[in-house]
Every structure is written in structure tokens, then in C-alpha cells.
Amino acid sequence: xxxxxxxxxxxxxxxxxxxxxxxxxxxxxxxxxxxxxxxxxxxxxxxxxxxxxxxxxxxxxxxxxxxxxxxxxxxxxxxxxxxxxxxxxxxxxxxxxxxxxxxxxxxxxxxxxxxxxxxxxxxxxxxxxxxxxxxxxxxxxxxxxxxxxxxxxxxxxxxxxxxxxxxxxxxxxxxxxxxxxxxxxxxxxxxxxxxxxxxxxxxxxxxxxxxxxxxxxxxxxxxx
Length: 224
Prior knowledge:
This protein is mainly alpha-helical. It has a domain of 143 residues: Methane Monooxygenase Hydroxylase, Chain G, domain 1. The protein is rod-shaped, with a radius of gyration of 47 Å. It starts with a helix and ends with a helix.
């Protein structure tokens, strides 16, 4: 799991370095090239936000004993992201001022306050839009986690049901074995009883035979 976090870190470092370079170039260029550069930076910042959200999700899956270290690293990346957004916002506002001046020329000073107000409202609207988009992505990520958790729960319930059936079958086999043992015990008891009875009969028969022999000898001796 930490290997995915480190992969996101590498992507974060590569993209933010490129963004920093481009933000520094914005004041130095003009025209269509500047417009395209501003749009490109805006797109890359969105990619970085998605990376941070992925990193946040990864941290939640890291074992508790290692989570603090990754949380600290993630916090520093978020701070770096905030700085980039502020730098870009300043460059974007300056860029808007340049466009305004190009469009209005000498009439810019007469409507300065109105344009400043419009600029602030636009920046505020952009911020709110970004916040809504980030909240939407977090909700989607939370929903995905909930779905995955439900799937895991269903698998656990299925395994428990299967284990319950195995235990029930084992109990049935034990009852059957116990019944067979009881039946065997009764058979053995009957056999033992018959053996004892047979031994008694043999003893009595032997005693009768011995008594008969003794009486025969007695009468034979007396007859002489």
C-alpha cells in the first residue's frame, strides 16, 4: 500500500515542479502563448488535487503504526499545493489585468473600481467552483469506499454462513456417531450377558456331570 503512496509522491513532485516553472514564466510572456500557459497550469493544478485525494485515501489504508509519518508528508504536500494555488492566483489576476488593459486602453482608469470588483467576484466564483468539485470528488471516493466495505461485509457473511453449515454437518456426524456408539454398546452388553449366561450353564452342567460320576462311583463301590 505504501508503494502506491510513493508513486503518487513522485508524480506530485514532477507535476508541481513543472507548475512552478510555468507560473514563473507567465509574467514574462504575452498574447496567445500566455493564455495557453495559464490554461495548462490550471489543468495541472487539478491533476495535483486529484493526486492529493488519492494520497489521502491511501494513507487511510496504511497500518496505524506507520500512518503518522505518511500523514505528516501529506500535510506538507497540501501546504505546498496551497502555496502554488496562491502564486497562480496572483499570476492569473495580473494576467486578467493585462487583458483588461489591452481591451480598455486609456479608458481603464475610469472604471477601475468596477473592474476590481468584477475581478474579485470572478476569483471568488472560481474558488467556490473548485471547492464544490473537490467536495464532489471526496463524496465519490467515500461512496466507493462504502461500496467496497459492503462487498467485504457480504463476503464475510457468506463465509460465516458456509462455516455455519460446516459446523452443522459436523454436529450431525457427531450425533450419528454417538448413536452408532450407543447401538454398539448395547450389542456388546447383550453379547457379554449371553457369554456370562453360557458360562453359568457350563458350570452347572459340569457340576451335574461331576455329581453323576461321584454317585456312580459311590453306588458301584457299595454294590461290591
